[in-house]
Amino acid sequence: MRISTVVFSALLLIAPAYAHHSDAGLDMTSTVTHEGTVVEYNFRNPHVYIVVDVEDEVGNTVQWEVQTSSTITVMRMGWTRDSLQPGDRVTFATNAAIDGRPYGLLNTIQKANGEVLATS
Q1: Which of 1, 25, 47, 117 is deepest in the core (most CB within 10 A)?
Q2: How far apart are CA 88 and CA 118, in angstroms?
Q3: What is the pTM assigned to this prediction?
Q4: Rounded distance, CA 63 to CA 50, Å?
Q5: Which residues contact 104 (CB under 8 A, 6 or more apart)?
Q6: 3-class secondary structure for the chain?
Q7: What pLDDT digit, counting tens, does each position of 58-110 carry?
């Protein structure tokens, strides 16, 4: 009985960690590209987040939230705390949420000066 309690407890602890890293809610088979203005750049763990104001096809502003890897992972690809600033014009490619939310996993982001920041 004691072993089953330990195994059950371990499974409860593992399940949230596994679910946290799931891409199940994202369309990993296609990429969408948008242009907009950086509103927030949160260079912190467990993931770096970028919020971008994007104008939709009818002229409304939609805030897209895009997620990258951890700070250490993107730092290995050249990112810094100062890589992006609010007000920067960017074009970004992302695997978008399946449910239509303006959310996705970032592939690349290009600044107006041509600098490209990649995540893989």
Answers
A1: 117
A2: 16
A3: 0.80
A4: 10
A5: 26, 32, 64, 66, 67, 94, 95, 96, 97
A6: CHHHHHHHHHHHHHHHHHHHCCCCCECCCCCEEEEEEEEEEECCCCCCEEEEEEECCCCCEEEEEEECCCHHHHHCCCCCCCCCCCCCEEEEEEEEECCCCCEEEEEEEEECCCCEEECC
A7: 999 999 999 999 999 999 999 999 999 999 999 999 999 999 999 999 999 99
Q: What is the amino acid identity at position 61? A: T
- Give the whole-angstrom CA distance, residue 85 versus residue 62: 18
Q: What is the distance between the alpha carbons of residues 85 and 79, in angstroms, rounded to a whole number?
A: 12
pLDDT of residue 109: 97
Give me 13's structure tokens: 């602890």
- Statement: residue 11 has pLDDT above 50: no
The two tokens of residue 70 are 């951890």
